[in-house]
Request: fold
Amino acid sequence: MFMEIEEWEPRTRVGRLVKEGKITTIDEIFQQGLTIAEPEIVDVLVGDLLEDEVVDISLVQRQSDAGRKRKFRATAVVGNKDGYVGVGEAKLKEIGPAIKKAITNAKLNLRPVRRGCGSWECSCGEPHTVPFKVSGKVGSTNVLLFSAPRGLGLVTGDTAKIVLELAGIKDVWSKTFGETRTTSNFAKATAKALHNTYAIMNRNDWTQ
Reply:
């Protein structure tokens, strides 16, 4: 990790603050309302804890005057299984570079996820589920996530399970609408719902 910091030349103010050691955790970036514009920021702050998984690779074609053009579209998810997750997508001519670019974009889309124990059936107080009902919509795909009691597991589709697991969510009820067979939209809608947990202020955020 030390060598990575030495070799990295930041291009943004946030990157320079990270390299200079003035920002030492990923939490500080979001608490100050800053933006992650370089994937190296994520690598330095949470690189050792970050996991990634490719959820979809598909071939897309476009007809032009010069003929039919083909590209591979890759969708990847990254998360630390402890309250941070991001989904990225990329389209390139080769599979390998497309996957690498998708993971890079997922790092740039990394956002915090609020967890809690919001189910009336459970009073354990552990951050194992979403604290309240949240929704996320991308294209025609709409995902609703509901608080669930501890031990229930993830009651949702396989794509959403990957996103939820990498975010650190262990129990959840879900309901989906639209075309969930579009894997990329399903993954992005799930991540958007999780990111929306910070769009609402709960009682723990109130100050006297």
Summary: The longest strand covers residues 51-64. Residues 133 and 199 are 12 Å apart (CA to CA). The first helix runs from residue 2 to 7. The chain has three domains: 2-46, 51-112, 134-205.
